[in-house]
Amino acid sequence: MDLSILNQMEPRFLKDKEFLSNVIQSLNLPLDAKIVDIGTGWGKMSIYLALHGYSVITGEPEKWSDWETYAKQAGVLDKIYYQKFDAHQLMFSDNTIDAIFLLGSLHHISDKMSGLKEILRILKKDGKIILFDYTDIRIEQIKQHSPHHPPAINPKELLDDLPVSYTESIDEKKEIFCYVIKKN
Ligand SMILES: C[S@@+](CC[C@H](N)C(=O)[O-])C[C@H]1O[C@@H](n2cnc3c(N)ncnc32)[C@H](O)[C@@H]1O
Question: How far away, in angstroms, is 100 Cα from ligand 1 center?
Answer without folding.
Answer: 13
